[in-house]
Design a protein that fits this description.
It is found in: Nucleus, Nucleolus. This protein is α/β, with parallel strands linked by helices. It has helices at about 30-40, 155-165, 170-185, 200-210, 240-255, 270-280, 290-300, 315-320, 325-335, 370-375, 395-400, 420-435, 450-460, 470-475, 505-515, 550-555, 595-605, 630-650, 655-670, 690-695, 745-755, 755-760; strands at about 80-85, 90-95, 190, 235, 265, 285-290, 310-315, 360-365, 380-385, 390, 410-415, 440-445, 480, 495-500, 520-525, 540-545, 565-575, 590-595.
Length: about 775
């Protein structure tokens, strides 16, 4: 057949032909990923990448997909995003499926706080019904039952305490310690819970026996046989300068009934020249830190210890922990070496004073088996507690550890918070604490290290003020208005910071501002404020970072519920091994567990006020999608992260971002310094670095934790170049990501390998 053959008739339908896509060049994984994306989005891939038949393969180190329509069109740009669920970075194409889930908020990233968090083991029960408040255990005794005159104090002192200082009755520790210290010449160990009045327990007997040197106790000038140049009778040693200042303030109030008795302080950070001038004029009671006193004993000839009758070691356990053992040995040895004078240089007989040198140890948690401390100071000591007094020789040294109980009126709780939610939970807790006017006047937030204190203060502060007076200039960088935690009931809240790296005048001015402020206050501090400081209006103590030991925890919570007043203490713990730490906290009042969800619900019910910006002087309110507590928490976290990133873009001023990175490093190093017996609860190998970095407003964990170079990008024998203002080990977080500072994919793995080095580098961070 001429026209014979096959006739093929295919029905192609109305749908357009699907273009076959073939990719060449680049890496195998990239080609597979692109082919899968093309298949999923083929209907909308009209301009997608195709390959011509005569295209040549490209280099394996490049990625270049060509299509048949335009050989000169550039390939699809790839984005780098961060998955907060697993803490890993991921490269995706603009046409990938994950693009649809990206947030439409500014920045294009949603701060995921409520995913991939560990599940706590603690069972959270419904809060019990309000019960009758417990009777305070450290309150003064009944005025009808006891009074200061009955303890052996003169009517002059008793009347002064009652009328001027408004102290009608003694506390239990004062009742048990004042009579033996007045009548006997034995060493003593005073142990009682915090806020029970141990300072007056040893100061009042000293003042009483010095006053007995006078012919007349009415205070008339003609009847006084002693004055400031009559000799040094008592030395009080305290571990911190702030505690010395506080003891001096209490003693000054007591000595208003005996103005001829003079006291002064010699502490570090002050002018030694002015201290020598005061010692040259004469002093009867000296309050000092061990280091400065040892310096004066070596170099100040006018300091005569021949008439010294009392040596008081306040917070004796802390003195040993802070490394003052050698100074204490030197001080005790020099005082005992000096012959005890029976009369002063004016010929006044000192028969009314003890005929031997009396040493008194004071602490709330002094361990009774600390043999070194007893060998240094105690001889035939009596053990005095709030309940009894034991005079059995060396009982103060050789007895078992005395069980400590917190004040019964102190309400303790702990919040189990995942690492990612720590920062927003802290803000929510503070915001809820100041939600009602007058509910909380002063709060203290304890943080592990000084770098972290600086960062949280800068983060939570409002716009910096411009002081005009000289006094406020000292606190220009330590006192500011607070943001985020204010409420309609308390629109003005003062934020303060305190740590050991500040200069002494700044520390003194900041602490004075905290005591005297009439507005609600929040003090962010290290353990420097955990010992002996008495601020009557402190209603709340927050341990944002757990203490390095149980003893430090006891002193921290002792800043509230003092002298019979009520108080609250909240401890932050992370899910996992840290939850077992609660079993170590022995207390008369049980710790009540709280869920972070309830804290967020209470704190973020009302809108969050943001710091004032340079563009506007009016405060702004944080806006979230659904205006729920959880959405506000995520919006707040995103705002904080963007604020840190914005600080690095505004003219290169990355002060806040650098502070966050340094605070993170110091926090990790501090985490490794818990006492050996408690490291099972604070296991640094179980600490999630990526989640912990998020609690500092960082989107990834910085390097350089171990103290050395964070990445081995320098060849052996090659010298590392550092600028004049750049420290070694701090180049790992430069914003440009160049050179040794580039964050590579193995950063998290290397940081975990360096955890073993953290133990040796623990001394490099500043605990204050």
């Amino acid at each position: 057949m001429a026209d014979g053959g096959l006739l093929l008739n295919f029905d192609l339908g109305d749908a357009p032909l699907k273009r076959q896509v073939k990719f060449t060049g680049g890496r195998w994984r990239d080609r597979v990923h692109a082919q899968r994306s093309a298949r999923k989005n083929q209907d909308g891939f009209e301009n997608g990448p195709t390959s011509s038949a005569n295209s040549t393969p490209l280099s394996n180190h490049r990625q270049d997909f060509r299509h048949t329509h335009d050989q000169n069109e550039r390939p699809t740009k790839r984005q780098k995003t961060f998955d907060y669920g697993n803490g890993q970075s991921d490269k995706i194409s603009n046409t990938g499926a994950r693009t649809a889930s990206a947030s439409t908020k500014p920045g294009g990233i949603t701060s995921r706080l409520f995913t991939s968090n560990p599940t706590p083991r603690t069972v959270f029960e419904e809060p019990a019904e309000d019960v009758e408040p417990a009777k305070p255990s450290n309150a003064p005794l009944s005025e009808e039952a006891e009074n200061f005159h009955a303890l052996g104090l003169s009517p002059r002192i008793a009347q002064h305490l009652s009328s001027k200082l408004e102290m009608k009755a003694p506390t239990s520790i004062q009742k048990n310690s004042i009579p033996p210290l007045i009548k006997d010449d034995s060493d003593a160990f005073l142990q009682a819970e915090t806020g029970s009045g141990k300072t007056l327990a040893y100061l009042l007997p000293i003042v009483q026996r010095i006053m007995n040197l006078s012919h007349r106790e009415d205070g008339s000038a003609t009847g006084t046989r002693i004055h400031r140049d009559s000799g040094l009778f008592a030395i009080v040693l305290a571990p911190t300068r702030e505690l010395c200042k506080q003891i001096a303030t209490v003693l000054e109030k007591v000595l208003r009934c005996a103005p001829w008795i003079v006291s002064t302080t010699v502490i570090g950070g002050e002018s030694k020249k002015s201290e020598k001038a005061r010692l040259r004029k004469g002093v009867n009671i000296l309050i000092a830190t061990p280091g400065r006193l040892a310096d004066h004993l070596d170099n100040t000839k006018v300091l005569d210890v021949g008439t010294v009758r009392w040596l008081i070691l306040d917070e004796g356990d802390r003195l040993m922990e802070m490394g003052f053992e050698e100074e204490l040995k030197s001080i005790v040895g020099k005082i005992r070496k000096e012959e005890l004078k029976k009369s002063n240089k004016e010929g006044v007989t000192l028969a009314a004073l003890p005929q031997r040198r009396v040493t008194v140890l004071c602490s709330a948690t002094m361990k009774m088996n600390v043999q070194r401390l007893g060998e240094i100071s105690l001889q035939d000591a009596i053990h005095v507690t709030a309940s009894k007094s034991e005079s059995d020789g060396d009982a103060a040294v050789e007895a078992n550890d005395a069980a400590f109980s917190a004040p019964s009126q102190l309400k303790q709780s702990y919040v189990v918070v995942p690492a990612k939610l720590r920062l927003v939970t802290l803000i929510a807790l503070l915001k809820s604490a100041f939600a009602r006017k007058g509910s909380v006047m002063k709060a203290i937030v304890f943080i592990s290290c000084a770098d972290s204190v600086d960062f949280h203060f800068d983060l939570l502060r409002s716009s910096p003020s411009h002081p005009s007076s000289d006094e406020s200039s000292l606190t220009r960088d330590t006192v500011s208005d607070a943001a985020y935690i204010t409420s309609p009931a308390n629109p003005d809240i003062t934020l303060l910071k305190l740590h050991g790296s500040l200069q002494q005048p700044v520390r003194t001015a900041t602490l004075t501002s905290f005591r005297t402020s009439k507005n609600p206050c929040v003090l962010i501090t290290t353990d420097i404020a955990s010992r002996g400081l008495d601020v009557p209006a402190v209603d709340l103590v927050i341990e944002y970072d757990p203490a390095f030991s149980v003893e430090d925890h006891v002193h921290r919570i002792g800043r509230t519920a003092r002298a019979g007043r009520p108080g609250k203490a909240t401890l932050f713990l992370q899910p996992g091994c840290e939850e077992g730490y609660v079993e170590l906290l022995k207390s008369s009042s049980a710790l009540v567990p709280q869920s972070y969800e309830s804290t967020l619900q209470k704190g973020f019910v009302t809108p969050i006020t943001l710091p004032k910006s340079d563009q506007t002087s009016e405060p702004q309110t944080l806006v979230s999608d659904r205006q729920t507590p959880n959405s506000r928490a995520e919006a707040l976290q995103l705002h904080l992260e963007q604020r840190l990133l914005a600080s690095a873009k505004d003219g290169g001023n990355s002060k806040l971002l650098d502070a966050a990175r340094q605070a993170f490093r110091s926090h990790i190093r501090a985490y490794a310094t818990h006492v050996r017996d408690e490291r099972v609860y604070f296991d640094i190998t179980q600490l999630h670095l990526g989640h912990t970095a998020k609690s500092f407003g960082l989107r990834e964990a910085p390097g350089g934790i171990g103290g050395g170079p964070s990445r081995r990008t320098i060849k052996p024998g090659q010298q590392k170049k550092t600028g004049s203002g750049q420290k070694k080990g701090d180049d790992s977080d430069r914003e440009d990501g160049a050179g040794a500072g580039a964050v590579d994919e193995d950063a998290a793995r290397r940081m975990r390998m360096k955890m073993k080095q953290v133990m040796s580098a623990a001394g490099e961070f500043n605990i204050g």
